[in-house]
Design brief:
- It contains 3 helices and 5 strands, in the order E-E-H-E-E-H-E-H.
- It is of the alpha+beta class.
- Helix 1 packs across helix 2.
């Protein structure tokens, strides 16, 4: 019997399709710098004049694509899904994803319930398909947000995350 090399990091017996708030971090493959820093408008701003490399232009395009896909997840693809807050960094993205009820595909009459894994998988697949290479690491990190205090701490962490970076533009090109 062949064992999986990937360690299971999800809570056993937890229903990840149930209503709740989830803090998700998705890292790029090999932690390559693919995106330009951006915090969702709900709490933040774009980062101006941080880079001078010609690769900065491609990173901005990649970030715009990711922003559009995040918006489409809650507005076009799924019902009862909300992206409360997100921060795009050069080599990872933080999201606070809210399941307001059972998440279903928009427009499907007999849609099954979708889980956090399905939503994250859709985001990763769409971005990789559009950019033409495997953008993301195979897994992702998640934390179930259970209290208002925890939510506030996570939002503050996300807001302060961009201040901790220095962009390595040499790593930006995914083909290097």
């Amino acid at each position: 019997m062949k064992q999986s090399l990937r360690k299971e990091i999800r809570l056993p017996f937890y229903d990840y399709s149930s209503s709740g708030w989830y803090f998700v971090t998705i890292c790029t493959n090999y932690r390559r710098s693919v995106f330009y820093p951006h915090i969702s408008a709900k709490y933040g701003h774009d980062f101006k004049n941080r880079g001078t490399s010609p690769k900065d232009s491609q990173a901005r395009k990649n970030t715009e694509l990711l922003r559009e896909v995040i918006w489409e997840l809650e507005s076009k693809y799924y019902v009862n899904l909300e992206i409360d807050f997100y921060c795009i960094m050069p080599d990872h993205v933080h999201l606070i994803i809210v399941f307001n009820d059972l998440v279903k595909r928009r427009g499907e009459l007999e849609s099954r319930n979708y889980s956090l894994r399905d939503v994250v998988g859709a985001l990763k697949a769409i971005i990789s398909r559009h950019l033409g290479f495997q953008v993301w690491q195979p897994n992702y990190y998640e934390h179930i947000i259970r209290t208002e205090g925890s939510l506030d701490r996570i939002r503050n962490y996300i807001l302060q995350n961009p201040e901790k970076i220095t962009i390595d533009w040499v790593k930006l090109d995914p083909k290097v």
